Amino acid sequence: MAKAVRPGRRATNERAFEQNEILVTWVRFDPDGEFTGRRMKSAGLTLRLAPNSGGRTAAELAGLLGDSVGAIVSTDPFDRSVFAAGPRLRVIARVGVGTDSIDLAAATEAGVVVTTAPGMNSETAADHTLALMLAAVRRVTEHDLAVRAGGWPRGGDLTPGDLHGRTVGVVGHGSIGAAVTRRLKGFGVKLLVTDPAIAEVDGAATVPLETVFKESDIVSLHLPLTPQTRGIIGSAELGVMKPGAILVNTARGGLVDETALEHALQSGRLRAAALDVFANEPPASSSLLSLPNVVLSPHIAGISLDSIERMTRQATDNVLAVLNGTPDPAVVANPEVLERLAVYAEAGAP
After folding, report:
1. Which of 281, 309, 310, 340 is catalytic?
2. Which CATH superfamily hosts domain 122-296?
3. Model confidence over 209-231: pLDDT tens digits?
4. Domain 14-120+304-346 CATH superfamily
5. Measuring CA to CA, which residue among 72, 115, 65 is closest to residue 87?
6. For residue range 154-178, what is the model confidence (pLDDT) as tens digits?
7. Selected catalytic residue, list 90, 252, 269, 313
8. CA pair distance 247, 263, nearest whole angstrom
9. 90 in catalytic set
């Protein structure tokens, strides 16, 4: 088997990777696609397809990795044990932008470049956020169940609310949060935004997190999951929300204390929640699944036919660029690894 090209050492062309394997766990990767599988095969790479729809353990992933030099993945758990099991691994291309399932420090120590696909699904995720928000406000899923059961609840306990005229708080104003606020402006809402990196947002008031929870009728989460944000929404934050408020989460399930959220929903403190993400995915044992005032979707906010094509093509580009020794720093989640690899290359290591 030919030796893998290390990042930092430029190959003359993409055919330098003959017989090197790429592990593909992303379920929508097309092995015969013009800009995906066919491009990799023409570069001399081989593909190991192991689609992951959720629930894969680190041990299972380590068993799959073998001698792969690259991986195109979604939410597979790359911890230190996985990197130890894959000594030839040089690049992980995340289809999406979240890296909470990857130990970036361990990746850097192992000399593995981790890339993402920024901006490829921001508008898609924003569309889905508004869909969930409207579904919760207008009680779409509750009405759907009632009609299917033979009911016709045009009033009473299932009377829906309005989005226009409400106060909506957006927690996190990166590319997805910003896309959500752009959409919300067309609904005639009062916008509150909290993000420590953003001082001013046109058409919205920038306020502390506590103010968002105290004053909003609807709170929408758009934060990355980091050690600092894990569990950032707990009983204290939920406890100051307006009676009858709605929580929307299309970011990461680990942001929210799900037990506290369940209590807030059951007690009537919150009118509803709309969730695309969960602490454990799929959430087979979550009590939230049994609550009629929770709108659910399967971590699909950023996924559409169009965004899949964009993200998968970007992930393919990222793998080839890294193996060619020409990684794009703009898509590298652990940029410090590039300095280490540059030093390695300058030292003339094989």
Report:
1. 281
2. NAD(P)-binding Rossmann-like Domain (3.40.50.720)
3. 999 999 999 999 999 999 999 99
4. NAD(P)-binding Rossmann-like Domain (3.40.50.720)
5. 65
6. 989 999 999 999 999 999 999 999 9
7. 252
8. 13
9. no
